[in-house]
């Protein structure tokens, strides 16, 4: 499998990664090599495997949906990670357009 | 002997006898770190002040008569484990200044047990790699040869332990990240069954295989640490509610009649003669100890790497989406445009290193429309075949034996330009991860002065059996007593 420049651009966009033209070329080449290696999986007979059902075999774990108060020092550290604060709240650039 | 060179068990006795104090033990470790880490570069953060405070507290608890296997024992933790009030970077520029607001469950359990956190160790960025060369900050050196890598991704923890910076270290293992560096540094590295240890507060990489485990100076110490950190956790719904075994109870039971499987695919013609020689000697030793060893076939094991490099990047592409410069991570100072999309692209393009970018793109591609069935679904199906094969073998045999790594530690810069070559490092270790099985790497010999480990894989939740085989081998061979001269 080889990724052309349009495909790698598309993947980078879906990945939300801003890449330079040389990075796109570089990663495109490396990812093509990795995908070619991975393509050996097509030779494996998986006709008898129902992966979806097998993965769903786990059981659910439930707990009451109750809010638990966070201790003040932990809350303070979390708030300190924000780049901008206003009135004890985290301020971010506008996300709704 | 310097105090920092002690095993947990030996230190425990001296602490309980009041021959030494936790402060003395901690001071010895801090001194060793300060003199040697300039060369080794195993630590990202040193917590001297809080470690000494914790040591004083441990001494007070001991003085009051409190007992506990890890009370007053100093350790290091991989820097992808959240530590409250302490920088937790995942060796990424994305989280260069991130301070965790809460402790990972394993850290909280160790704190309650009185263990002393000395600092945080280097890793490949977000644990993506097998050498620590993908760390955004620096590469850790192998204490056996500082021109070589310590392995990865828990390379900082393995190198630090091998150099006696601490009495034990924590790593995380997604596809070999505890076992491969343990092999390269001649220490014991244990990957528990998936779900045996809580993942809460371990930065998510591949949520379906990630597990936290101990790196120690001998097998018994690994069993002792696991006993403290294992067990169900309400904050991790994938943690197992099964009772935690007493992992040291039967550790010395002899191996008479024990059945060991050797997968012929791991001992093929491409295995180097030097590695084969180490393994042959190890197998003879196990036979001498009474084990029955038989060659078997695991025909799908050769697909472990291609499967792993679809599943892992797929989960990474999803788990690392939160690192967008808003919820978590680096916010670019470059004003690129007004749209949210442009800001995301800039933050993530600047913040992530090359291997993280490759994995995010590989996973995004595998999960994208038109390719999902061909890659992700196919890989999950083959994963089932690999898993079935291992589980069926472990119904007939007690354990499976392989080399941990196809070779000893490679040179720094030796293969960092070829991602595929680096992925092949995980050849023997990714299968047990995909199947969620417990596995250990223990010192098994040396090739031209560099250590090599052997891997013992057990059936799900049979960690006690893995420890028993490993302990018997260790006590008969004493490879673990060799120390790096650094």
Automatic annotation (TrEMBL), chain A:
It catalyses: L-aspartyl-tRNA(Asn) + L-glutamine + ATP + H2O = L-asparaginyl-tRNA(Asn) + L-glutamate + ADP + phosphate + 2 H(+); L-glutamyl-tRNA(Gln) + L-glutamine + ATP + H2O = L-glutaminyl-tRNA(Gln) + L-glutamate + ADP + phosphate + H(+). It comes from the Bacteria. InterPro entries: Asp/Glu-ADT_sf_sub_c, GatC. It holds the Pfam family GatC. One of its GO terms (molecular function) is glutaminyl-tRNA synthase (glutamine-hydrolyzing) activity. Its EC number is 6.3.5.-. The keyword Chaperone does not apply. Signal peptide: none annotated. It is an enzyme of class 6 (ligase). Gene3D superfamilies: Glu-tRNAGln amidotransferase C subunit, N-terminal domain. Keywords: ATP-binding, Ligase, Nucleotide-binding, Protein biosynthesis, Transferase. Coiled coil: none annotated. One of its GO terms (biological process) is translation. NCBIfam families: gatC. Belongs to the GatC family. Heterotrimer of A, B and C subunits. Allows the formation of correctly charged Asn-tRNA(Asn) or Gln-tRNA(Gln) through the transamidation of misacylated Asp-tRNA(Asn) or Glu-tRNA(Gln) in organisms which lack either or both of asparaginyl-tRNA or glutaminyl-tRNA synthetases. The reaction takes place in the presence of glutamine and ATP through an activated phospho-Asp-tRNA(Asn) or phospho-Glu-tRNA(Gln). This is Aspartyl/glutamyl-tRNA(Asn/Gln) amidotransferase subunit C. It comes from Candidatus Falkowbacteria bacterium CG10_big_fil_rev_8_21_14_0_10_39_9. The lineage of its organism: Bacteria, Candidatus Falkowiibacteriota. The gene is gatC.
Automatic annotation (TrEMBL), chain B:
GO terms for molecular function: ATP binding; glutaminyl-tRNA synthase (glutamine-hydrolyzing) activity; transferase activity. It is an enzyme of class 6 (ligase). Its EC number is 6.3.5.7. Keywords: ATP-binding, Ligase, Nucleotide-binding, Protein biosynthesis, Transferase. Residues 25-466 form the Amidase domain. GO terms for cellular component: glutamyl-tRNA(Gln) amidotransferase complex. The keyword Hydrolase does not apply. PROSITE patterns: AMIDASES (PS00571). NCBIfam families: gatA. Heterotrimer of A, B and C subunits. Allows the formation of correctly charged Gln-tRNA(Gln) through the transamidation of misacylated Glu-tRNA(Gln) in organisms which lack glutaminyl-tRNA synthetase. The reaction takes place in the presence of glutamine and ATP through an activated gamma-phospho-Glu-tRNA(Gln). This is Glutamyl-tRNA(Gln) amidotransferase subunit A.
